[in-house]
Amino acid sequence: MAETLDKRRTSEHARDLGIYDEDGFVDADFLDRLRSLVKAEKAAALIEMVEPLHESELGDILETLDAEPRQNLVRLLGNSFDYAALTEVDEAIRLAIVEAMPNQQIAEALGELDSDDAVYILEDIEEEDRKEILAALPFKERIRLRRSLEYPEESAGRRMQTEYISVPPYWSVGQTIDYMREDEDLPTSFAQIFVVDPTLKLIGAVELDRILRAKRPEKIEDIMHDTRHAIPAEMDQEEAAQIIEQYDLLSAAVVDADERLVGVLTIDDVIDIVQAEAEEDIKRLGGVGDEEISDTVMTAVRSRFTWLLVNLATAILASMVIGLYDATIQQMVALAVLMPIVASMGGNAGTQTMTVAVRALASRDIDLRNAGRIIRRESLIGLLNGVLFALIIGIVAALWFQSLGIGGVIAAAMVINMLAAALAGILIPLVLDNLGADPALASGTFVTTVTDVVGFFAFLGLAGWWFGLG
Amino acid sequence: MAETLDKRRTSEHARDLGIYDEDGFVDADFLDRLRSLVKAEKAAALIEMVEPLHESELGDILETLDAEPRQNLVRLLGNSFDYAALTEVDEAIRLAIVEAMPNQQIAEALGELDSDDAVYILEDIEEEDRKEILAALPFKERIRLRRSLEYPEESAGRRMQTEYISVPPYWSVGQTIDYMREDEDLPTSFAQIFVVDPTLKLIGAVELDRILRAKRPEKIEDIMHDTRHAIPAEMDQEEAAQIIEQYDLLSAAVVDADERLVGVLTIDDVIDIVQAEAEEDIKRLGGVGDEEISDTVMTAVRSRFTWLLVNLATAILASMVIGLYDATIQQMVALAVLMPIVASMGGNAGTQTMTVAVRALASRDIDLRNAGRIIRRESLIGLLNGVLFALIIGIVAALWFQSLGIGGVIAAAMVINMLAAALAGILIPLVLDNLGADPALASGTFVTTVTDVVGFFAFLGLAGWWFGLG
Questions:
Q1: In whole angstroms, what is the distance from residue A138 CA to residue A200 CA?
Q2: Do residue B308 and residue A274 have CB atoms under 8 angstroms apart?
Q3: Looking at the structure, do residues A323 and A454 belong to the same domain, yes or no?
Q4: What is the pLDDT of residues A398-415, one digit of tens each?
């Protein structure tokens, strides 16, 4: 992604306000001005500076500031603070800001937000505070938010917006348009309206452009279409996002267990979900779980420790393989010098195959049924690259240690380990996925364990046998 | 991503058609029926089976079939084949299908697609065929597609849709609605209309819900808003996606160098771009470049070879460090047994830091200016985990080889290498990014080179000095 980031966020709006520099970072001058206003406690000037900003821009500023000026900025902005910006920052920062506020103030702020943003902020707040905040909300909003919060974490019900427009099927287009003109309690923007029966059961939807193109006397039921992609509120947000994405929908109705309309999931939420899930995959492949850059040092140490501990266990296992051949190594130290090459090449080749496999699994391009084809493919790639690198390292090692035998042994070990890497790289993610585990989370360790163990075994074992050592 | 994939694609529509099994894969029975119809050349039955499918569902089927039945299916479907499905499959499959078709047929097919889909298919076709196809298109479409193709690859101009609605600012809401009711040449669906002056320069936009809520006599110029986020056609698609994403837009106007409206970029394209860019990052971090699962074995071998060759060079470098201490190892073989542990732990810790750094760079959370804070953070994490693992491995090694000296040496080497890993993990991506290189592509090799070299140096060097060997 990074290659093009240099020219990021150069939209006219942002350029006019001078928030971002040409590299897409929050502009240094802008920040300096902001910081000195905060220091001088000039609330009015700050409000004037921050008011025209989009919530995402204010979010970027909050993430860039240190904790102290950040809290002071929020305090000085007071009622002018755009609470929607809280949905644009890391969890740790969001919590720090919210915890410094009296619950009464949070309740007032939430009342002004869309319900999905309000839920997003509420769900991280501790049980007790949450109850107090909900109690301080007007009845209608309290009911809405409470219902959303009752759905499981990361479900469509948590991410949906409860503001939507629904009309009965027998209304005319004219009636519907008049209703939209007059009702003040409408969502801030919307792309379709829903059609429900008297029990609120969802029976259809109409896109706005379809309404605009219809004549006023036409009946809604004649221009509506079935909502074939209605999303159960209990559905995982990722699945819901995949449906909206697959069928290129602008929004989708969310329904409860009785197929009653309870909310709407919009495509901009889908983008956030897609981003978050891709981020999760990358972090899991890199062994850092759900860590965020704003987490405290102790949180980061703890989350990384587990992964490193697993790696230590597998590294010790690989060492024990070497330990089996200590007599062999003592008689030929060249083996100790060369052995990490075989293991390292296997590890990299295995990671390549694993990356392809994890991605193919995520997009449902492979499964156990068509695994035969993909296993043959990866084995062939492993074999071919194995032979190529066997030739290269064989020649290099033979020249380096002036021994054809060493060149032959490392070449043979290389072919074996590259094949093992291909098989481990494809089979381990497949099996993990089939067991219901996340292949992105665990495959890496297992794959490199295999390539280390096979690499050391093959190289040291072959050498011991060939040279009659040990 | 994978943990929840099990329940994927269970939308009512797909369930009714029976295309997907409960794991979200193309259903085996469905495929079997399809394959036997293809084999029996029953075109009519096939058309009946495939016609109700969404383009993305047909795309999934094309990706699941082997080359021969796939080509036969497309041939048997004839004019009933939904060409939009071509935008849903891997490049290799798309090219195979298109190359088997006469250019005249492709031209007819493209005429029925939205312009962005047509460009997507055209841009991969070879120059000569492309010219012939364009020549066979009606004048208006030829001009449109040619203009899109003149913009750079992966630019907003390539991804935009050239079907949009634009009206002059002095029109009334009523006039605009009547125009939309009568004009047949409209985009299939749209969320906003654009306002242009007589020279086609963009001056504003109005969302459909705003039009619906306005009274018929109101003037468009009174309800339109500035298009503060208009996107230059030359802009990279990723930047454009980031603007649409940051400001939660449903679509954005694309303008040429003279600020004339030339197209519209819609949010469903943005999702595809976000997906593609995340996929690219994951693959680059895994060392498989732009490889797709449908690439041929030779393409995959070639693309992976380069990365493995770089890794071989760095592995040899690490071996040369070991080579410096061959006499030390000969006197104490335990060192050869233990040395991969230090290197491996450093490699993993470095990868963790690097993953956090690459993600933070991609989302502009860090840069060289605030690097101090992040470098201190990562060093502290590295130091703390270094001390923890030094204790663990120190005790394990001391017990294993019955030597306090060995335990002390490996513990000290572990602290040093974990610190080096933290510094390499943060500094290498920062420097690469600052040089304009993609940190996702190259950081991995450099980081593990540092941790291998420092790991072997620290451990073998300390051991040689402590035990007076070498």
A1: 23
A2: no
A3: yes
A4: 999 999 999 999 999 999
